[in-house]
Design brief:
The chain is α+β, with helices and mostly antiparallel strands. 21% of the residues lie in helices and 22% in strands.
């Protein structure tokens, strides 16, 4: 498999890590869309949110728990946005489940 996020999770490709445990990795986005923009990925390859099922859904709860901890530790107090794009039409450029966390400015809705 030639998945860039699997390579980042394994350490084959370097990243600016924020948090790591045995299940997930959080790292800063290389093309930030907000003053704070990081990604959280499961280390296990899951194609996207459309591939979450009973066998792997617990990872999503773990991701959201850790996002709350990470944002607290980063001092993000005014709020943030969590985004997971799904499929080509949804803007998913890497077919590996990932969550964008954006903060540090007021975020408009709908996003532009």
């Amino acid at each position: 498999m030639d998945c860039i996020f699997c390579k980042i999770a394994s350490g084959e490709i370097p990243s600016k890590k924020i948090y790591e445990d045995e299940k997930i990795l959080a790292f800063y986005d290389i093309e930030p869309q907000a003053p704070v923009h990081f990604l959280v990925i499961p280390k296990e390859h899951i194609d996207g949110a459309d591939r979450i099922d009973e066998s792997n859904s617990a990872i999503v709860a773990h991701v959201f728990q850790k996002i709350a901890e990470i944002t607290y530790e980063l001092g993000i107090t005014q709020g943030y946005r969590i985004v997971s794009n799904v499929g080509k039409d949804g803007g998913q450029s890497v077919r590996h489940l990932h969550f964008h966390v954006l903060a540090g400015r007021e975020l408009a809705w709908p996003p532009g």
